[in-house]
Design a protein that fits this description.
The structure holds two protein chains of two kinds. Chain A is α+β, with helices and mostly antiparallel strands. Chain A has a single domain, classed as Aminopeptidase (3-Layer(aba) Sandwich). Helix content of chain A is 33%, strand content 23%. Chain A is globular, with a radius of gyration of 15 Å. Chain B is α+β, with helices and mostly antiparallel strands. Chain B has four helices and eight strands, in the order E-E-H-H-E-E-E-H-E-H-E-E. In chain B, a hairpin with an 8-residue loop joins strand 4 and strand 5. In chain B, helix 1 crosses helix 2. The longest helix of chain B is centred in the N-terminal third of the chain and has 18 residues. The chains are: A alpha+beta, B alpha+beta. Chains A and B meet through helix 2 of A and helix 2 of B.
């Protein structure tokens, strides 16, 4: 069983999911907050998403992390790097629990995950697939330095109206650092 | 976490954790009509997701479904599944290819898991949910010593009939 590596940032610890995280993840996945991910989902599908993000590590060497506020031990969200067969390239996505928005947690966690993707896997670019109506997520992508890539291929079954591609250029970040 | 054996061995089979090399055979099963009783057929993307979740279940709960291997080849999966920590774990079994049916492999694998969980590990009970039309699986439940019960079907398997496998059933 390949676990997720633990990453730390100024305020956050990104760690392997634990079973008890499911209660919180389920609350997001089964609620209207999952609308931009194709939800809300039922219990079975919610478990499958959660367990798949945990198990993908063994198959691909990347997957999901629980986003934990280090000072309090409180889970504030999830960050995931994924490349299922219908995605043309690896994607990074984020999800915040209710009450955890507006504090820069998604940006801070995603930056750490992107740095890890570059150093651990040598990735030079990842994308984020975002619903154009999801202004909060677009703001995170923009803060991370990603920009809209209108020519990028879309996941199978998605449309240019429903999905915008934001591209993270890790080679560029490395050159600037 | 309720940790269980990572490997179980029977006369003819080895049950072990799911691994990346099983994905091809598992996907072939998922896209086939053999998943008709469990919500399928699925596509390859769904198969990847379901297989990832099978692995993730072990990491999250300490137990999960074993891949059944025969002479080193993966031929199915068997074992406990628990979506909701407040509900009874569910016992499941599946052979991935019709070529492996009618040889007692599913029963042999399910008996080994039943004995490990209820006898060695001291679990109290396992619930079994089966599509009412899946007569082969219902027969297997009876052979395992499971008791038919009048429980309502879970939301994710409408119409399913329920059996219970209790620790007091002689192994």
């Amino acid at each position: 069983m390949t676990p997720a590596p633990t990453l730390t940032t100024a305020r956050l610890t990104l760690r392997q999911h634990l079973a008890e995280d499911f209660a919180l993840m389920r609350d997001i996945l089964m609620s209207a907050r999952a609308a931009y991910m194709g939800g809300p989902f039922d219990l079975e599908k919610s478990w499958q998403i959660f367990a798949a993000d945990t198990g993908a590590w063994a198959l691909q060497g990347f997957g999901g992390w629980a986003m934990v506020e280090t000072a309090t031990g409180r889970i504030v969200g999830q960050i995931v790097i994924q490349h299922p067969a219908h995605y043309p390239e690896p994607e990074i996505g984020w999800m915040l629990l209710e009450g955890a928005e507006g504090q820069g947690f998604a940006t801070e966690a995603a930056q750490a995950a992107l740095d890890w993707a570059r150093s651990a896997h040598g990735m030079t670019t990842l994308v984020s697939y975002v619903d154009p109506a999801n202004a909060a997520s677009i703001a995170v992508a923009t803060r991370l330095g990603a920009s809209r890539d209108a020519g990028a291929p879309l996941p199978v079954g998605e449309t240019p109206d429903g999905t915008h591609v934001y591209r993270h250029d890790l080679a560029g970040v490395a050159a600037c650092a | 976490m309720r940790m269980i054996a990572s490997t179980l061995t029977t006369d003819r089979l080895v049950l072990r954790h799911p691994q990346a090399s099983d994905l091809r055979a598992y996907t072939a099963y998922c896209v086939s009509t053999r998943t008709r009783f469990t919500g399928g057929a699925f596509n390859a993307v769904q198969a990847f997701d379901k297989f990832s979740a099978m692995i993730g279940h072990w990491a999250l709960r300490g137990f999960g479904r074993y891949v059944i291997t025969r002479d080193g080849q993966p031929i199915g999966h068997v074992g406990p599944l628990q979506l909701d920590a407040n509900e009874a774990p569910e016992m499941t079994w599946t052979l991935w290819d019709a070529a492996h049916e009618k040889q007692g492999f599913a029963l042999e694998a399910a008996e080994a898991v039943r004995d490990h969980l209820l006898r060695d590990q001291g679990w109290d009970h396992l619930v079994i949910r089966i599509d009412p039309g899946n007569t082969a699986s219902r027969r297997l439940a009876q052979k395992l010593g499971a008791r038919f019960a009048d429980d309502p079907a879970p939301q994710w398997l409408p119409g399913a009939v329920t059996y219970w496998l209790m620790a007091e059933v002689p192994a």
